[in-house]
Structure formats: C-alpha cells, structure tokens
Design goal:
The complex is a heterodimer of chains A (457) and B (64). Chain A contains 15 helices and eleven strands. By secondary structure, chain A is an alpha/beta fold. The radius of gyration of chain A is 20 Å and the shape is globular. Chain B is an all-alpha fold and 64 residues long. Classes of the chains: A alpha/beta (457), B mainly alpha (64). The interface between A and B is medium-sized, with 37 and 26 residues.
Chain lengths: 457, 64
C-alpha cells in the first residue's frame, strides 16, 4: 500500500514506520517502474538515503520537525537544487549545477523531506511532449501510451504511481493543474505571490506560480504550508497574512459558482468530465453549500490575453539563446518560443490592458461566491503521440484564466471516464483563500470515492 | 482564423526577430502565426478604452 503524506507523517510520528523504510519503498518502485514512466530524469539515491537516515535519527530522538519530516519527494527539474543538476529537461542546461537551492526547495529541506531526485518536465516548462530531448517525456501511469499533460509531467506521473509521495510543480498556463487532472491526482496553483519563485527557472514571470502536487488535497495542503511565505528576493512575492491552511473548514453556507459556459459552451468537455463536475456540485449541495451558475468573460478572451502574455514573456527569457543557439532546444519549444518573437510591443501591452479588464470583470462576476468550479482538462488523456503541436492555439484551455487573475486554483480527481482514465474538476477561490479551496477539494474527495483507486502500473 | 502572411512577408518578420530556423519550421510557424493573429484580433476587439492602464504600471514607491 502506498501511504498519503498525511498517513506516512502520522506513522513516522508514532514510530510505526521508519523514513528509511519509506524511502526504500519509493526507490524500489522507481527501480521497477521509472524505465516505463520516465518520471524521474535523475534519481539521487545516496542523498535520499542520507536524508532518510537523518530523519530517522530525529524520529528516534523525538525531535521530528513536523509532518514532512522523512517524507520522500521529488522536485520538477526547473527547481534549482544545490549541487544537483537542474536542466529544465533541456540540452541547453545539460551541465547546469546550481550552487543554491531554490527558496522553496530550501523550505522543504528545512522541513525534513527526503529528496529522491529530479522530475521530468516539458522543456523549460513549455515545450512538450517532445521526443528529441536528452530524456524522453513522462508517461501516464493509468495508460503508458497516454499523455500526462504538462509541464509538471514527471511530478504527476511519479505521485500517481507512488514513486514519490509528493513533489513540486510550476504553473504558468496550467502546468500543475493539467498534469494533476490527467494523472488523477491533486495539484494546486496557489495565489500569485504566496510562494517564492526565486531559484526556479522562469517561463513568464507575471504568470509563473510555484506549487505542489500530491495524491490528494490534504497532502497538497501539507506541502503548500511548508512551501509558502514571503520572500523579498521575488518581486512577485506578497507579505500576506496566510500562515496556515485549514482543510477542515465547513462547506455549509458556502456559495459555489459553476462557470458552466467554460465547460459547456466555450470548450465543451467529455461526458465523464461533465459528470464529475455535476456530481461535485451535488456533493456541495449535500454538504450544505448553495450552488449557482456564474458568468465570467469567455475562455477565448482569457486565452488570447494569456497566450500573448506568456509567449511574449517567454521570448524575453529565451531571446538570446533563440538567436545564438536555437538548435539546442527541442523543435517544439523552439517553435513555441519563436512565435513569441514575432509579437510586437503593442501586442504585449494590449494583452496587459486586456488582462486588467478581465480581472476586473472576473471580480465583479464572482462577488459573493466563495468557490468557483469548472473543468481542468476537456477530456481524458489523449495518446501521447497524438497531441497536436499547436494545441494551445487551437482550443482554449481552462486553466490560464487563473494565471491571469492570480487566484488560487486546485485540480482534484472526480472519477474515471473512457478507458478507466481519470477525469477532474478545477476549484477556484478568491485571492488568499488557498486554505478554503483545499478544504473544498478535501470535502469532495472524502465523498466522491475517487481516491480509492491507484493506477495499474 | 486569419489568413497566413505571404511567405515573403513572413520571412521578413522572422528575420526582424533575429531568428534563423530550418525552412520546414518557418513554414509551420507561418500557419501557427495565423492562429496567433486571431488571438491578437480578440485583444483589440472591442477596442480597449484610450485611458485603460496596462496590467503592470510603474509605481514610484514600489519600482516597476
């Protein structure tokens, strides 16, 4: 049995499980399954066992640091790790070994986690799935011919298959929530400014969010609590008042807004995805919440502002290498970045002005609601070889609206659809209500039964 | 979807961006660019009021 972080933490605290034993279990699953799943691109076995032994010593001396002490995790390979290669899954950074941990990596290290290694990502968190990079793309544990979504693809695959109990992700247009959805786990993009991005390779700074992925909302809350906090070295960081995430908050009397036009009109979703959203609404009603439709600006408007902003900012990050050594990128990322180079300054400014309007309209439409709900992905995972190169330009995605607004947004598994593949819902809150969003996810997971089943691998 | 730019016009904006890419990728990009132009049109229709501020506005107290 693969424990959740909450369960493993309780067992470690009660001295019923050793962190070394827990870590060896994960390493054994990595040895057995990673050659199929490609979730880890680097396994730091010696470091993991050293971390685990240190945690075990604290366990035995009664000096555990908290619920994450001794918990085996992995970091997406755009998170800087001191003395450990951080490549962004790219030939461009194949020899890059940071001298410092990212701020969030340091926070988890200080909480006592066991570092299993570095996890696959779409190249620089933008280009994937790609088959021309130094490592192959991660595979979906529910069906290894299927796509994981991206870009936090390795983290989602590893957590779903129990190779790690949790891990880091980043989300610029849906890169935490998309993989969490297709791999049947939970992942939260926190409020913009809640978690530091310092030491994480950027994609688009006004949209980039750092956050965790885990088996369920409760584990995401544990990981996020240890990851958040003001960081003056990140210009986007906010000195906020959120110090704890209470997932036991009652749903009674809460107002839930269904962004029905997103998933029924703007981009109609699969039958199983829709069923999961409707069942989630029924659970909310049963728990005493009031459920009503809410109308936000269209997905198409959000996607136009979002992709122009993302493309322009990503181009600015990669401009020099795109001009001097473009062939060291994989084809997919090279083409996506190139598109950003064709935008004008006016295009970017218009996207920024549109963004402000979209945020104002979204706040006005959401007034009085505590939680919004819609899809996270349109359907079950596609075959990995069938993912269109320009999918982002063809159909609007459900996640980028909340990168633009900066609101917290969580993906949870709501059940299973075609071929036994997971489907998901996205829960969104107002800024700094990350705890309430996680509480809503936790409430749904306790009722919907989707956490009873692990992937077959 | 907007019509793709002509091969010649597209080659000009690729060159202006300082990009040197394989010909097949340039052609692929020309068609993707047409889809992007559809998004750009959405940003400008309806026109944004003259006085609307960009999302990021310089603030003397906080920096940019």
């Amino acid at each position: 049995m693969i424990p959740t972080i909450a369960e493993a933490g309780a067992l470690i605290a009660a001295k019923k499980v050793s962190p070394v034993e827990l870590t060896r279990d994960c390493l054994a699953r990595i040895a057995a399954q990673n050659s199929t799943l490609n979730a880890f691109i680097l396994v730091t076995e010696e470091r993991a066992l050293a971390d685990a032994r240190a945690a075990e010593a604290r366990q035995m001396s009664g000096t555990l640091k908290g619920r994450l002490d001794g918990i085996p995790i992995g970091h997406k390979d755009i998170y800087g790790t001191a003395g450990i290669a951080t490549t962004a899954h790219s030939a461009q950074l194949i020899d890059n070994v940071p001298t410092r941990d990212a701020v969030t990596v340091g926070k988890w290290r200080d909480a006592g986690v066991v570092l299993l290694g570095k996890l696959a990502t779409h190249e620089f968190a933008f280009g994937g799935p790609s088959f021309d990079l130094p490592w192959p793309p991660a595979r979906n544990p529910w069906d290894t011919e299927r796509f994981t979504a991206g870009s936090s693809s390795g983290t989602a695959a590893a957590v779903a298959a129990g190779l790690a109990l949790g891990g880091t992700g980043s989300d610029t247009g849906g890169s935490i929530r998309g993989p969490a959805a297709l791999c049947g786990i939970a992942g939260i993009k926190p409020t913009y400014g809640l978690c530091s991005r310092t030491g994480i390779l950027p994609l688009a700074q006004t949209l980039d969010h750092a956050g965790p992925l885990a088996w369920n909302s409760e584990d995401c809350a544990i990981l996020l609590e240890a990851m958040m906090g003001y960081d003056p070295t990140d210009p986007g960081s906010v000195d906020h008042s959120v110090t704890a995430l209470d997932i036991k908050q009652d749903m009674r009397g809460r107002r839930i807004g269904v962004i029905r036009h997103f998933h029924e009109v703007d981009h109609p979703v699969s039958a199983a995805t829709l069923r999961g959203i409707e069942e989630s609404c029924a659970i909310f009603r049963k728990l005493g919440a009031e459920v009503a439709d809410v109308t936000l600006p269209s997905l198409q408007e959000f996607n136009a502002a979002g992709w122009v902003t993302l493309s322009a900012e990503a181009w600015a990050v990669h401009e020099e290498w795109m001009r001097t050594r473009p062939m060291k990128y994989g084809e997919l990322l090279r083409c996506r970045l190139a598109l950003g180079g064709l935008l004008s300054a006016g295009d970017y400014i218009q996207a920024s002005r549109k963004r402000r309007q979209l945020i104002e309209r979204s706040f006005a439409a959401s007034a009085g609601f505590d939680i919004l709900i819609t899809a996270a992905q349109p359907m079950e995972a596609a075959k990995i070889r069938d993912v269109p190169k320009w999918s982002t330009l063809e159909k609007p995605n459900f996640t980028i609206p909340f990168n633009l607004t900066g609101w917290p947004a969580l993906t949870i598994c709501t059940g299973f659809g075609e071929g036994g593949l997971p489907v998901a819902a996205q829960l969104i809150g107002m800024p700094w209500t990350d705890g309430l969003v996680l509480a809503a996810g936790h409430a749904l997971e306790r009722e919907n039964g989707a956490r009873a089943k692990r992937p077959p691998v | 979807m907007a019509e793709p730019l002509s091969v010649q016009d597209f080659a000009t904006i690729v060159a202006q961006a300082g990009l040197t890419l394989p010909p097949a990728e340039v052609e692929d990009l020309r068609h993707a660019h047409a889809k992007l132009m559809g998004m750009l049109a959405l940003l400008r229709d309806p026109a944004i009021p003259l006085a609307a501020e960009p999302a990021l506005t310089f603030s003397a107290g906080k920096g940019a």
